[in-house]
Amino acid sequence: MRFRLTPRETSFYDMFAASADNIVTGSKLLMELLGADSSARTEISERMRAAEHAGDDATHAIFHQLNSSFITPFDREDIYSLASSLDDIMDFMEEAVDLVVLYQIEELPKGVEQQIEVLARAAELTAEAMPNLRTMTNLTEYWIEVNRLENQADQIHRKLLAHLFNGKYDAIEVLKLKQIVDVLEEAADAFEHVANTVETIAVKES
Fold this sequence. Notes:
The chain has helices spanning 11-35, 38-68, 76-102, 112-129, 140-164, 171-205. The chain is mainly α and 206 residues long. It has a single domain, classed as Phosphate transport system protein phou homolog 2, domain 2 (Methane Monooxygenase Hydroxylase, Chain G, domain 1). Helix 1 (11-35) packs parallel to helix 3. Residues 1-7 have low confidence and may be disordered.
């Protein structure tokens, strides 16, 4: 790690960790959605919306700190990118839950549970990794595993699309379900963006 002569603003580390912990909360709500009947989904959606708002607040706090700090722990553009990508994850997860409720989906297609399981694992890994930004240690396995999970998510997504277009569903239902599985795939992509940003930061700081 590079030797620095100037002090650094360290509150960013805590804020990134809090943002990642909130994403774990979101992933748990997605898991709840799988086993919930239609009457319980509205309440889950409300809790997810509250978690998404908490994520927005965390992101705004990071941006405010970034704009008011003279010295930052790593490059400003990387701080912005990391905060934005973490925020994107919550946005996509909240959107997926909201669509399930708005479209009044009775039954999610087989395979969505695998998508959500991948997101839940990526959320756990991300939350475990964020505190390690402080020391830039034990991060390599994190971004390798998240990239592997994203590849797994791609495969699940393709299988889901094939299932949706096999003629079992009518055209309107296909459009609804495709939008949901696409948004979940975007969440997986956003986890990979976070991991790639962490890798970029670690390389610069080495």
